[in-house]
Amino acid sequence: MSIIEVNELHKRYGETVAVDEVSFTVDEGEIFGILGPNGAGKTTTVECVEGLRTPSSGSTSVLGLDPQRDRAELRQRLGSQLQESTLPDKITVAEALDLYASFYRHPADWPALLETLHLSDKRNTQYRRLSGGQKQRLSIALALVGSPDVAVLDELTTGLDPQARRDTWDLIEQIRDSGVTVILVTHFMDEAERLCDRLALVDSGRIAALDTPSGLVKRAEQQQQVHFRPSTPLDDELLTGLPEVSEVRRSGPQITVVGTGNLLHAVSSTLARQQIVAEELRVEQSSLDDAFVALTGRRIDP
Length: 302
Ligand SMILES: Nc1ncnc2c1ncn2[C@@H]1O[C@H](COP(=O)(O)OP(=O)(O)OP(=O)(O)O)[C@@H](O)[C@H]1O
Description:
This is ABC-2 type transport system ATP-binding protein. InterPro entries: AAA+_ATPase, ABC_transporter-like_ATP-bd, ABC_transporter-like_CS, ABC_transporter_ATP-binding, P-loop_NTPase. Its main location: membrane. It is a peripheral membrane protein. The structure is a single chain. The protein is of the alpha/beta class. The protein has two domains: 2-212, P-loop containing nucleotide triphosphate hydrolases (Rossmann fold); 224-285, Alpha-Beta Plaits, CATH 3.30.70. Helix content is 32%, strand content 29%. It has eleven helices and 13 strands. The chain has helices at residues 42-49, 71-77, 93-101, 110-116, 132-144, 162-177, 189-195, 213-219, 237-240, 263-273, 288-296; strands spanning 2-13, 16-27, 31-35, 57-62, 78-81, 150-154, 181-186, 198-203, 206-211, 224-230, 245-251, 254-259, 278-284. A six-stranded mixed beta sheet has the order 5-6-7-3-8-9, with helices on both faces. It has a four-stranded antiparallel beta sheet with strand order 11-12-10-13, covered by helices on one side. A hairpin with a 2-residue loop joins strand 1 (2-13) and strand 2 (16-27).
């Protein structure tokens, strides 16, 4: 069941069209990703959904509410993580959570939230003394302290080290599993691929494609490549004759087979029939990165 509906959303700033006729729905309990390069219109889109910006035209409904008209009610049910924190330097973690909790009718049990976010030992630490990762986790706690039905997380892991990124991803999955619908704004392919149930690829204010991460990869119809070194000499025609194979390339002893479908199985069973062993076998699948290039004509370059 969809709990967010965006129809032909359009937002311009003077001459700049930031969001151009964008439509999508978000289902209850999913992690919905909005992926695109800097300036693509991601933040403007989600801020219209949150009621923080007024669309030039189009309609939006969140949890059955109009983000403009019902902004006060929506604030009670939608938690957002700010792109950059605006907390005062000297506020402690506990004070910040107490303050934010006071805004909500049904605040979460925030000490438990701190536990989940591995921040319990920082509750009396001032904001300015937190590391980048701790600040990020606090901003997630603040987005969740009102027990929201929907959480909007914008550039979740920017500036985090690899371990902190992975911990944050685990956390977002826990949040989704607890029943919160998540909108995730990102320009990281790996993050989108790992976390999102469905994903809108946004480029120049428009949705270029919307699907599951694997659906997007499939749509891009990028070919796979199988690389190996045959244990004994091999005639190319053995492979070029297979329906899955579009090309066979050689580089010294190394062979690269390009094709689609179940290419690995086709190649390996053909070699096995000839009693040829494929040494140093490696398969290259197309990635979401390839899909983005195929579907938008350009590469995300954070
Ligand atoms: N308040 C504003 N006034 C004028 N132009 C704006 C304003 N906010 C955004 N823009 C412009 O609208 C376009 C989309 O910006 P937006 O911040 O929505 O993109 P984004 O995809 O979130 O980018 P980023 O990842 O850099 O935050 C950009 O060209 C930006 O310069």
